[in-house]
Every structure is written in C-alpha cells, then in structure tokens.
Automatic annotation (TrEMBL):
Full protein name: Glycosyltransferase
Residues in Glycosyl transferase family domain copies: 206-328
PANTHER family: GLYCOSYLTRANSFERASE, GLYCOSYLTRANSFERASE (GROUP I)
Keywords tagged on the record: Glycosyltransferase, Transferase
Keyword Transferase: yes
GO molecular function, one term: glycosyltransferase activity
E.C. designation(s): 2.4.-.-
Organism, scientific name: Alicyclobacillus dauci
Alphabetical list of Gene3D superfamilies matching this protein: 3.40.50.11010, Glycogen Phosphorylase B
Pfam family membership, one: Glycos_transf_1
Signal peptide: none
SUPFAM superfamilies linked: UDP-Glycosyltransferase/glycogen phosphorylase
Amino acid sequence: MFKNWLAFGMSAYNTPGFQDTSRLMTRGFDGEVVYVEPPQSLLRWRNANALMWDWQPREHDAHHTVLTPPLSIPKKLDIFSLGLKRQASNLNTELSYRWGHEWRKETVVYVTNWTPYQYRLIECLNPTYLVFDCVDDVLAFPYDWNRDKVIEAWKRIANRASSVLAVSPTLRDQMETQLNRSVTLMPNGVDAQLFMKPASAVPPALELAGDKLRVGFAGTLNHWINFEAMLTLVEDFPEVTLFLLGRQGQMAEQQAQTFKRLLDHDRVHYLGGVPYEELPGYLQAQDVLILPRIASSASEASNPLKLFEYLAVGKPTVVGGVPIAQDLNRLVYGAETSLSYQDAFRRALDELRNPSPGIVRERQAYAMRRTWSERVRSTLRAIQTT
C-alpha cells in the first residue's frame, strides 16, 4: 500500500557524529524515501545563492533523496501565506515528478515534535497519511521556545495526523494531555545487524587505554549527561580508561566546568564525533558501556537510541537517570544516584570477571526485536488501524 516515505527531518541528513530518529526511520522503510532537511536559518537571507522557492535535491543512494528546502519565510513577512503556498506548490511538483501526481495515496508523511513549525507547510501539502512522532520532551530542554506557540503547532499537526506516536509511556501520557487525542506507544529502534556485525580490528585511537579496561560513552555530550557521575567513575576506578564519542552540545555553566575537569583527567579521552557506520567497531572494543543521564523530566520521558545500540553490541551496560523497562532490568545495570552508579559499575565489572555468553545473546536478541524496520512496520500498522 505504501510505496513512499516523505520525512521532514530533525537535522541535516549528513550531520557528522550524530543520528536521530527521523533519519534512522528512513533506514527501516522498504521503498522510496525523500528526506526534507530542516528549514534554513534566516541568516541565509543574506546569501545571494540561497534559493527562495526551489527545493534542491541530491541523491543519497538509489532509493534515498535528500531535499534542501528554500529559505524559510517569516510569517510576519508572508501575511497571506502566498510565499509559503508557492514553496509548497514547488515541493508538490518535485514529489509528483518522482512519484506521480497521485503520490499522496501511496506516501507516508513523517514529522517529529522537534519541528513544530513545519505545520504550515504540511497543511499546504495536505497529505493523506501523516505520522506525528513525539521523540523527546522538547519543552523540558533549556531552549528558548515559546511553549504556547509550540503546543499550538503540535495540535495542528496532530489534528491532521493519521497516527501520533511517542517513544516512552511518560511522553505518551504527556502528549495525550497536551494534544487531547490518543497517542500510540512506539519505543525507538536500532540497526541491530550493523551493531552486531563483528569489527575487523580495534580502532587505533582506543589503544590509548594500554592495559586498562576500556569504558565507553557514545552520544551527544550536552545538558542531559551526568558528567559528575563520569568523573566519579574514573576517580574511583583506577583500572579504567574512559572514551567519549560524540559531538559537544549545549551545557549549563557549572556542567561545562565539570566537563572540562573530566577532559583534563589523564584517563579520559575525547574522540569527538565518529561516523555512524564506524561506531559499532568503537563500541565493540569497549569492556563496559555507560549511559549516565541526569535525572529530570526530560530524561523520564526519554527512550535513548544509544541504549538499544549498546544492547545490540552485547556489552555490560550501566544506565542512570532514565527509566528502564521491566523486560530490560536483568540485561542492564541500573543506577538512580551517583553512589548507586558506582555499585552498578561494580556489578558490570563482576560480569567481566565471570562472563556469560547467554546474557550477551539475550541483549542482542532484545535489540533484534526492536529494529528500525520493525518500528516502521508497527507505524504502518498503526496508520491502517486508526
């Protein structure tokens, strides 16, 4: 029934050292994909080469096309939405060229709650099948968003949506209250085969550990990460070397100071963002993987991508600050405080000393049941049963 997937993305398609649900979902769809990058910054208005109306396509591979959008036109400058309607008409022309004039009948249009102001374009496009995927408690993050306007934009998207999804029970309940409609629980997924495929060699950068145990963290280093727990870990366990993989994001001043202290430690190595296809090799070469988040409303509503990638690798994993599903309790080592984080890490070390192939297989089997392909299939079923 569905031959095409049109995604309004959360980030540029080739953002280095970073992945998100909107891009990874395109991996799970078996058909033609067009990924629309987020609107260009208003600063591009000064760039004479920036396009006002046209959508610039580039072929990523045989089945994936990336569209760079025209400049975003401020609503106050486009009172009657004539500019927006022209842009939407040009997008419709681009899609009709690729998929035919009846493209709406065979296309899923996908948008997350990270791009609320796409609602105006979506309304002009008037899709038949629209999926609204709520992937974070966005308004709990320290960003300068107008709460009332964001929620109003979400409502307008949700009112048109065939299905509204949320990645965690907490976020589902929250969005049902805000949107006043039913929301389907749909946890994140993982490219399990990519992360389970054995690496050919240990990445040279990890040789910095010498004879120490390798402990790894992968993900954006920003305001939701518990750097204090990381620092305590390397100070209390002299037998470990910590590797940080990921780009740096926004942090509060005190948090940034703790992060600097962490980087100054002689057994901490920051490797920056790693290409996604190379990340499994880095994770497989670790002895223990960690996911220390700060306990907060945003963390409570989250469903971290990295947790599923860690499970696919199969390594002992220590998790803090995020809810752990009941069926995951025996597969990871959970911690609620910095002190309990140390205890959880000791239990992970115990597994290293007494390895169990069975627990590794269980972790990987859990990941295999939660692939992006399965999440897409579940999404399509949700559309058809709504």
